[in-house]
Specification:
The structure is a homodimer.
Chain A lengths: L5 E4 L4 H9 L4 E3 L17 H14 L6 E12 L2 E3 L5 H11 L3 E12 L4 E12 L4 H11 L13 H6 E6 L1 H5 L3 H13 L3
Helix pairs in contact in A: 3-4
């Protein structure tokens, strides 16, 4: 699809793999632990693109001539605070409860990088509005789905998203971890534009 | 989940079945052909709820005491016109091409009906914004996915939705055929409220 480029996905997220597959893109997965630390004063919406660049930097030295790396980071922002992954079930309950009957933002930052150090970073924001969730519904969800690997402790494509999300404003797949249509656009631009 | 009620889905759509399953609802499928004809002067956004009521009427006589019927209809509206399913590949191409670089509405109407003729109908609207699609992308999609059973000739959950939809404003699952969180809310209301 993208000429002779070989796409490398620098992410362990099974959701991102699944999304890239559904986009019809062939890729291999290559990851390296990166410390997900960002400057305290950074605007929350700038954090994901920053972290995606950090992740790309960690893998830059492994890139071969025809390889094109995609890294991404997704955060949930509520009340101007970045919400990460829950440490345990109690924190997960509090996180989901805090999303109930409110709007929050999900921001995914993406970096595309090639072996010549040409790169582009961008991010997309999706607004998500949850209905009022009952404690029983939240407990049922946490028990059945154990969303401990997810920012904000929920997956939009899971039960809680189906019964609890009134509406979104933005890209749906962005909430799952990749702004797919923006990524498709940026990949095409990246490959047709000279540096 | 819904006390002693037995849910009956009055729809042949595999997407609706899949969505109800993901909502954790057990159900059986029961369908009867209904003529999907609506008054010409009807406001396009009122059409899906009207058609969902027609579909419910067709099945009303089959309902047993503990059964609860759910019927639905989904239409695509662009330039204030209801867009149905394409007749053939040429019409499908024109339909998708006409969605390119524009906003359109997807409206799903739902009727819930029990054996005592208690019923409720409602509908939800989702705004969908497509990026500019290339003819090559449209042809690729139609060839690979053959979306001839879908209003507007596309599925949001398919390739064209992933690479082509910039954003939506509303319920994602509504575009697939059921406004899942609204349905969950309405089912709970329906079952707790006396007539």
């Amino acid at each position: 699809m993208f000429n002779d480029k070989r796409i490398v996905l620098g992410s362990q997220s099974p959701r991102r793999s699944h999304l890239l597959e559904q986009m019809g893109i062939e890729f291999e997965i290559r990851t390296q632990d990166a410390l997900e630390i960002f400057p305290e004063a950074m605007h929350p919406e700038d954090v994901p693109a920053y972290l995606s660049r950090l992740k790309a930097k960690e893998l830059e030295s492994t890139l071969k001539a025809q390889e094109l790396l995609i890294t991404a980071d997704t955060v949930v922002i509520i009340d101007d605070q970045v919400v990460g992954k829950p440490q345990d079930a109690v924190e997960a309950f509090d996180m989901v409860k805090n999303l109930s009957n409110k709007v929050h933002k999900v921001v995914t930052g993406v970096t595309i990088l090639d072996a010549n150090s040409k790169s582009v970073s961008f991010s997309e924001t999706t607004y998500v509005i949850f209905r009022r969730l009952s404690d029983a519904d939240i407990k049922h969800y946490l028990h059945e789905y154990k969303p401990f690997d997810k920012a904000g402790a929920y997956g939009i494509q899971e039960w809680i998203g189906m019964i609890g999300i009134e509406k979104i404003d933005g890209c749906y797949y962005n909430v799952m971890g990749l702004p797919t249509s923006r990524l498709y656009l940026e990949l095409n631009k990246f490959l047709t534009k000279e540096v």
